[in-house]
């Protein structure tokens, strides 16, 4: 059910046209900032960070289908602290969470929807979802956060370390041998989450997501061709069966 919100959320005070477009959603959106992060820490709810921009077609589609919908908004408001980000205003936040999506082995895009610990460290991400899928994903993530917090925390910590390793490769004036060493460390740290049987990225036991070899794992495979993970990556790239 869709409705016009007669009580605008906190985005009504923002200057971004994209954020203002969401000011009358029934979702209790907050802008990125210390206030939202503090709310998440105090309430011990995960953050739901949704990133887009004014000219993004699928951002508007998802708003109409899910963010204007009372059922979806109720779940979002009850289970999460919801933050809307204009990627054109905060490109650093967009880049950070896009990097996290890639490390999860997923394709990026917008809207970029990321669920994080209360302190902002991500543990799940995706892009556009139809309303029924979105509601189902939110329910599952909320249950995981409450019932399996230790697993969520471990994954978030490893993902944060992976983001740091990727930033070292991107931003530091390293020679190629240094780059290989950093990639080796990062991939060795992450390979426990790669599903060698079905080609997935195991966020939690029994849950597999499509694995597309990233630049990091591709370089690792080229430098370590006999490693089990390398054989999986090479088979994905060449469409051969290992």
Question: What does this protein structure show overall?
Answer:
The protein is globular and about 55 Å long. With 242 residues, the protein is an alpha/beta fold. The strands form two sheets. Strands 1-3-2-4-5 form a five-stranded mixed beta sheet, sandwiched between helices.
Assembly type of the chains comes to single chain
User: Main beta sheet, described?
Assistant: 5 strands, mixed
Side-by-side strand order of the widest sheet? 1-3-2-4-5
> What proportion of the residues form beta strands (DSSP E)?
5-15%
Number of strands: 8
Draw up the topology in text.
Blueprint: H1 17-21, E1 30-31, H2 34-43, E2 47-52, H3 57-67, H4 70-79, E3 81-86, H5 91-103, E4 112-116, E5 122-126, H6 131-147, H7 149-171, H8 176-190, E6 194-195, E7 200-204, E8 207-210, H9 215-223, H10 228-238
Helix pairs in contact: 4-6, 5-7, 7-8, 8-9, 9-10
Output the keywords.
globular, five-stranded mixed β-sheet, single chain, 14% strand, disordered C terminus, 242 residues, 51% helix, three-stranded antiparallel β-sheet, 8 strands, alpha/beta
Give a short summary of the structure.
By secondary structure, this protein is α/β, with parallel strands linked by helices. It is built from ten helices and eight strands. The strands form two sheets. Strands 1-3-2-4-5 form a five-stranded mixed β-sheet, sandwiched between helices. It has a three-stranded antiparallel β-sheet with strand order 6-7-8, covered by helices on one side.
